[in-house]
Every structure is written in C-alpha cells, then in structure tokens.
Write a structure and sequence with these properties.
2 domains; alpha+beta; seven-stranded mixed sheet; Ribosomal Protein S5, domain 2; Alpha-Beta Plaits; single chain
C-alpha cells in the first residue's frame, strides 16, 4: 500500500514543494498465469513484506533531475534504457501535476531515491512497484495524494515503456492490500476467511516472460483447441481458489495450486529449476506449490500451514537452491 491514500482526490491548491515519499510492494499470481492472456481470470496476491520505498526531494532551480538507485545514480537524462520506466514515472507525474493546478511542477528539479527489495525479472511486479512508489512520491512533493484511477494510469504509462502492452494486473497488485480478482481488465477485492501463509522462493534465474508467452502463443496457433482447454481449466482453478479463500480452506487452496502447476507444465512454461523447488516444497509438506509469473525461471509460490511450517519450507527451499525466500500472509492475523 502506498503511503498516500489512494482513495483521496488530487489536491489542486498549489503547495510549497517538500520532500515527498511513498511505498509500494511486490505481487505474485496465485492462479492464472498465461491463461489471463486468453481472457481467463486471475487471482493476484500482494506481497506486502517485499517493499519499494521512494523519496523525491526538490533541488535548486538551476539543477536537473537526478536518480539514485541500484541500477543508475546520476542525471535522469543520462539514465540507461533499463530505468526508462522510472524516468517516465518522474516526468509523467510532473506533467500530470502541471496540467492539474501545479503549473510549476515541470520546472521543479527533483532528486529521486529508490530503494527496492522486489527482485527484477522474477514475476513479482518490480517495474510496476517502482513506478507506483515513484509516481506517488513525486506527487507528494506538491502535497498531492493521487486518486486510484490516476495513480493506476500513471503506473500503466510506465509499464507500457517497460512491457509494451501491460494487462494492468501488476499495476493493480503492487498497490493492493488484499487479494484481487482480475478479469477483463477489471478488479474486485477477494474475501478472505482465516489466515493463509505463503513462502515465495527465487530460483536465482531470471524469468523469461516474453519467451514463455510467445511459446504458448505458438502452441495455441498450432493446436488452439488443446491450449484453450488448458486455459479453461486454469480459469476454473482460479474460480475454485477464490472460493477456498472465502471458505478459509487452506488444504483445498493448496490442491488448486498443485493442479495449476501441472497445467502450466503442460504449456511448457516451467523449468528444471522451478520444478526442483516445487518438489522441495512438497517434500517439506507444503499444502501447495507452483510456479508464479511468466515462468522459465523466476519464482515459486508455496502455501504453508502456519508460520512455523513456513520457516521449515523456506529452509528446505534454500537447501534446494533457492537464492532468496520471502514469507507473507493474507487474511486475519493472530
């Protein structure tokens, strides 16, 4: 959740520039990878324990915008292509503010500091999370709390630079405070009964989303009926998983996760690294385990019975080669 209230309307009264700050977090797909491309629904989980924080500090008028991050530190105008979405987050937000009551916004140089714990190319929404934090922090410089729709569109503008034609799923997930149901570009909050504890594990291998999406597209071109059948089954699993969250049935949710992984494997978007970690989680008695995100690298998502079990699963995953693990939960906290 960003530190700015997403439900607040934009402030139009000019404010004296100040140090602005905001935060966002990672996301993961519970059920729905690849199938969502073909119109099936998806369930998205916020990973609130893996955060991005951003601050934006006004500079003297004769300075230029600067960025400080792990990828680039220096003038914004000299930023490499890898951080162009972040450059867009700054410039697009200033342009929006200039059009909505803050005429001096585009003439205010800023130093933007980004501290991201969300790993890149792991299916956790890194670019969207950075965009969410930076856009809100830049707006906060001028005392503006972006409303939900404006914030989403600014994040999407950055995501178009990063990914071409983003679905909007990441942009929604990185600012959500609860699981969301994503279908046809529309989101709905998902009711959760009880508490669910997840462990996310990084294979250490970057995901290859574009390659995986293209491969599934190729399979669909060759055998549309077969791929459509898998898509329909994944969509049905997403619907089932939504029901299990509402029922508080962790065992049933785990079973849907296992089934989803097998279906994604038939689409050839898993990998030896992902399958090894899924197997390790199951040996540690995880209630469910699957790849999450585009696949062919990236992360796995596992479901634990409780916090103590999550520790055991995380240990097993690291022993099996995971380079990092994160534990997160949704629903009621003890």
């Amino acid at each position: 959740m960003t530190s700015n209230d997403p439900a607040s309307a934009p402030t139009t009264t000019p404010a004296i520039p100040r140090v602005g700050s905001s935060a966002s977090h990672g996301k993961t797909i519970l059920i729905g990878e690849h199938a969502v491309v073909y119109g099936a629904p998806a369930l998205v989980l916020p990973v609130t324990d893996v955060r991005v924080t951003a601050t934006a500090s006004p500079l003297p008028a004769d300075d230029e915008h600067t960025l400080e991050s792990t990828v680039h530190t220096g003038p914004l105008g000299l930023a490499p292509a890898a951080v162009l979405p972040t450059v867009t987050a700054v410039t697009a937000t200033l342009r929006h503010l200039a059009r909505h009551g803050h005429a001096d916004a585009e003439g205010t140089p800023l130093h933007v500091l980004v501290d991201s714990q969300v790993p890149t190319a792991r299916g956790m929404g890194s670019s969207a999370a950075v965009a969410a934090a930076v856009t809100a922090a830049v707006a906060d410089v001028f005392g503006v709390a972006l409303d939900t729709d404006t914030h989403h569109e600014l994040i999407q503008e950055c995501e178009r630079v990063a990914h071409g034609r983003p679905s909007g799923l990441d942009a929604r997930g990185v600012v959500a405070t609860e699981p969301v149901w994503f279908a046809d570009g529309v989101i709905e909050p998902v009711q959760v009964t009880g508490r669910f504890v997840f462990v996310v594990a990084d294979t250490g291998v970057p995901g290859h989303t574009r390659e995986a999406v293209a491969a599934v597209r190729g399979r669909h071109d060759r055998a549309p009926a077969a791929v459509d059948a898998v898509v329909d089954r994944i969509g049905s699993l997403a619907t089932t998983a939504r029901g299990t969250l509402g029922d508080g049935d962790a065992q049933a949710l785990g079973a849907t996760m296992d089934a989803a992984h097998e279906l994604l494997t038939t689409l050839d978007v898993s990998s030896a690294d992902l399958d090894r970690l899924v197997g390790a989680a199951r040996k540690a008695d995880a209630l469910g385990a699957k790849l999450t995100g585009g696949g062919r690298g990236g992360c796995v998502l596992t479901l634990a019975a409780d916090d103590e079990h999550a520790v055991r699963i995380a240990t097993a995953l690291r022993s099996a080669g995971a380079t990092a693990t994160w534990t997160t939960s949704i629903g009621a906290r003890a």
